[in-house]
Design goal:
Layout (H helix, E strand, L loop, with lengths): L1 H65 L11 E5 L3 E6 L5 E11 L6 E8 L6 E9 L4 E6 L7 E6 L12 E13 L3 E12 L1
Antiparallel strand pairs: 1-9, 2-9, 3-8, 4-7, 4-9, 5-6, 5-8
Length: 200
């Protein structure tokens, strides 16, 4: 009786043990499959993020180089005198010239080396030239001419050394841009000047 009972208990223990082992294998197999699936799901996501970031970086570099800003300073140290476009509307009936004057209020610009700005004309068929003039507080003045202003924005840069009539740049009174009747083909028109700045 005891031997048979012992055998029955042993068989029951074996059955339970087998069942537990089977369940453990099934559970561990399923959990490892879940881990593998989650790893495979993460890998494509990481690749997509990496590829998209590389694409965005490349696209931004291409766009930056292809479409440079017209008003960019190209890493030059600048003092911006007028950051927005100025409209010079000329009409030579009866006037003979149209002047835009910027008051420099005795500004010391001796540490700067060049004057820069952008120009364009409104009328494609017109031929326009501009006179740009510096005046100092010491009654010195000097001018430079910019001929054949284009219909689209163009940047100009001129060395302050080219303004020969100015010997002392420590107290500047004004900067003038003038459209003169004898420097235009049409009697009426518009010229725009933008981003007037001094460069070091």
């Amino acid at each position: 009786m005891t031997d048979k009972g012992f055998c029955a208990i042993n068989n029951q223990d074996m059955d339970k043990k087998d069942i537990y082992e089977h369940l453990a294998k099934v559970y561990l197999g399923v959990s490892s499959q879940k881990k593998n699936k989650s790893k495979t799901k993460q890998r494509p996501f990481k690749k997509i993020v990496l590829l998209s970031s590389v694409f965005i970086f490349a696209l931004s570099a291409i766009l930056f180089n292809t479409f440079p800003k017209r008003n960019a300073f190209n890493s030059e140290l600048a003092l911006v005198l007028v950051p927005e476009p100025v409209k010079i509307n000329f009409d030579f009936n009866p006037a003979k010239k149209e002047i835009y004057t910027l008051d420099l209020n005795k500004l010391n610009i001796s540490r700067f080396k060049a004057l820069a700005f952008a120009l364009k004309k409104a009328n494609y068929n017109d031929t326009v030239s501009l006179r740009v003039e510096f005046n100092s507080a010491f009654n010195e003045k000097s001018e430079a001419y910019f001929k054949n202003i284009p219909h689209r924005w163009r940047d100009y840069k001129i060395s302050l050394a080219d303004f020969k009539g100015i010997s002392d740049w420590t107290e500047m009174s004004s900067l003038s841009v003038t459209v003169e009747e004898w420097n235009t083909k049409e009697k009426k028109g518009v010229v725009y000047i933008d981003n007037i700045r001094l460069l070091k």
